[in-house]
Each structure stands twice: as C-alpha cells, then as structure tokens.
Design a protein that fits this description.
Number of helices: 4
Distance between the termini: 56 Å
CATH class: Alpha Beta
Mean pLDDT: 93
Number of strands: 6
Shape: globular
CATH topology: Peptide Deformylase
CATH superfamily: Peptide deformylase
CATH architecture: Alpha-Beta Complex
Order of helices and strands: HEEEEEHHEH
Largest sheet: 6 strands, antiparallel
Bound molecules: zinc ion
Helix content: 25-40%
Oligomer: single chain
Low-confidence stretches: none
Strand content: 25-35%
Length: 179
C-alpha cells in the first residue's frame, strides 16, 4: 500500500501540540523502499533549503507520516535512518539545549546519555550497527523519541531553568558571544 505519493507531497512541518507528535510511528517494511528513497531525497532537499545553515534532522512524523524513519543532513553526513533500535545508552548523562522544528517557539535543556549503541537499516535496507558519541548520540535519542511519540518538552526536568523562548535564548547567546 502506498503511504506517500511523492508527486503530490507538500512538506509541511507538524507543530506542537498536534496529536500526531504524540503518536507512536510504525515499523517500515522492505516493500516500501521506493517510496522511502523518494521521500528521503525530498526531505534532504527541504532541510538544505529551509533549515538553519542547511542542516537539521526530521522524523517522518514531523511531516505527518507515522513511519519509523528519520533523515539527517549534518555537516559531515547525510543519513536516512530506518527502524532504529536503541540497544543501550551509556557513558553517563549530560544536559544540553535542544531545538525542534515542531516546537518553533522554545528551546529546552534536556538530559541525555552521552553515548548510544544503535542498530538501524540504511536506504538499501542494510543493517547498520554503530556506537555514537555526542552530538550524534543526542540527535539519535531526540529523533527516536519522536518515533515513540515524545518531544523534548516531555523530558524537561525544571521548567524554570530548562525551558526558554527561542527569542530569549538567541538574544542571551548573542550577548554571550559578544563578550
Ligand atoms: Zn524534534
């Protein structure tokens, strides 16, 4: 069954508090490979053109498709991650600021493990088994949360200190950068 007609897809980011973002995404099957390939390149182009400095990560639920895939376009790598599994998270935890296209108003400081051992399928449906450190480990955990219907907002420990408007965050950051 086709779940995406690439000819007609309009990439529109689903925003908080849309219920889609609280829904668990479904496993991808191998017969869906052609659609995934087309969609992956479409989203990579979207990130390149629309995201800050052309880099970012988008889970399919963020464009309204509840399939376990996320697409990352980062300075060193372009990657489509299919059916990711978190084998273990280790190396202690650390808090860092996170942003999300689906939560455009806020940034949040989130505690995550520093390292993860993960398994996923690439665009050829080949299994990849890898250990990631920061910042990739944080990105991976943020995106797997999306596929499980969670946002960084759900992981904020202290709203007073760990949640900020994006506007405040950037004005504080630029003041800091000037010093
Ligand atoms: Zn996100």
């Amino acid at each position: 069954m086709l779940w995406c007609h690439i000819e007609v897809i309009m990439i529109k980011i689903v925003k908080y508090p849309n219920i889609i973002l609280n829904t668990t995404s479904k496993e991808v099957k191998s017969e869906e490979i052609n659609e995934i390939n087309a969609l992956s390149s479409e989203i990579t182009t979207y990130i390149k053109n629309k995201c800050y400095k052309g880099f970012g990560t988008i889970s399919l639920c963020q464009v309204g498709i509840l399939k376990r895939i996320f697409i990352a376009r980062l300075p060193a790598i372009e990657l489509t991650v299919i059916n990711p599994i978190l084998i273990r998270a280790f190396g202690g935890t650390t808090k860092s600021w996170e942003m999300c296209l689906s939560v455009p108003e806020f940034v949040g400081k989130v505690r995550r493990h520093k390292k993860v051992e993960v398994e996923f399928l690439d665009l050829n449906f080949k299994s990849v088994h890898i250990t990631l450190s920061q910042p990739l480990s944080r990105i991976f955990l943020h995106e797997v949360d999306h596929l499980d219907g969670k946002l960084f907002l759900d992981r904020i420990e202290d709203k007073q200190t760990d949640l900020m408007s994006r506007e405040d965050y950037f004005s504080r950051k630029s003041r800091k950068d000037e010093q």
